[in-house]
Amino acid sequence: MSRLDGRRVLVTGAARGLGAEIARCLSDAGAAVIVTDVLDDPGRAVADALPGPSLFRHLDVTNEDQWTAAVAAAGEHLGGLDGLVNNAGVLHMAPIEETSVGDVARILSVNVIGPFLGIRTVAPALRRAGGGAIVNIASIDGVAGMNSVAAYSASKFAVRGLTRSAALELGRDNIRVNAVCPAMGNPEMSQPFFDRIDVTRYMRHRPPDVMPAAANAADAARMTRFLLSDDSIGCTGSDFLVDAGYLAGHFQPGLPGF
Ligand SMILES: NC(=O)c1ccc[n+]([C@@H]2O[C@H](COP(=O)([O-])OP(=O)(O)OC[C@H]3O[C@@H](n4cnc5c(N)ncnc54)[C@H](O)[C@@H]3O)[C@@H](O)[C@H]2O)c1
């Protein structure tokens, strides 16, 4: 297992779902974790249950002042920061013609401006620590398009661009920046939209011979841990799909041997 002993890592959107899974995975590996979210009580509960050093801070990732305060808290309580996981995200599922400019602005604000502010605010702290690592949580929807998620998909493609530019700018300061593109996070994220979607039809269109369900939040959390650790020292400016081969290509049953 990749170790993170003594590393101090801030995780956004960590009150539930993938973010909480990441916080636990990093803590298990020896990291001190700053759990942040807009959901205060669940966020505090996640932080309190971690085996290692932790603290909770309210952080709306679209709010620059709250970013400054969270980084200051990390300095005050843990002496600095070595890593950042930009995990907080929101989803909107609707056809383009039923998606308002306000919907798109909200998605871009949390999913793109959030990580942008995070990188901008945390970079000086990582530099002071002599370097560090940043992981941006994108999605398979940031690698391939899908109907009903135009705004979300655009935001996750943007995260991959942000990742590359940040990696190029911060590499000279020994700061690595990578993106994780999971197929699966918290099913609760898409649940509110399922009343308008025929879920059985949606699932049936997933090819039976690859295994998106096998790539779960725990798998994405372990990839995040790897990318924060020195085991991934040679990796920066890249995307790491955690999709059990879902986007690997087209599987054709009936061909020789299959
Ligand atoms: N759910 C999926 O199937 C899936 C698939 C691929 C990628 N992802 C990505 O994984 C990440 C985590 O999502 P999840 O699946 O755990 O869903 P989730 O809804 O359980 O978690 C998202 C978290 O972000 C927080 N959040 C929302 N707006 C925020 C803001 N403005 N500031 C701070 N926190 C905010 C929420 O409170 C929540 O705790 C997201 O970036 C998401 O896009 C999810």
Q: Pairing-aware structural class of the strands and helices? A: alpha/beta
From the 3D structure, determine the CATH topology: Rossmann fold
Rg (C-alpha, Å): 18 Å
Please tell me what the overall shape is: globular
Describe this structure in words.
This protein is an alpha/beta fold and 258 residues long. The chain has one domain (8-242): NAD(P)-binding Rossmann-like Domain (Rossmann fold). It is 40% helix and 14% strand. It is built from seven helices and seven strands. It has helices spanning 17-28, 40-49, 64-78, 101-128, 150-170, 199-204, 217-228; strands at residues 8-11, 32-37, 54-58, 83-86, 132-137, 175-182, 239-242. The protein has a seven-stranded parallel sheet with strand order 3-2-1-4-5-6-7, sandwiched between helices. Helix 1 packs across helix 7 (217-228) and helix 3 (64-78) packs parallel to helix 4 (101-128). The longest helix is centred in the middle third of the chain and has 28 residues, at 101-128. The two termini are 34 Å apart. The model has no long low-confidence stretch (mean pLDDT 93). The structure holds nicotinamide-adenine-dinucleotide (NAD). Nicotinamide-adenine-dinucleotide is lined by residues 12-13, 15-19, 37-39, 59-62, 87-90, 110, 137, 139, 182, 184-186, 188-190.
Supply database-style keywords:
258 residues; alpha/beta; Rossmann fold; seven-stranded parallel β-sheet; binds nicotinamide-adenine-dinucleotide
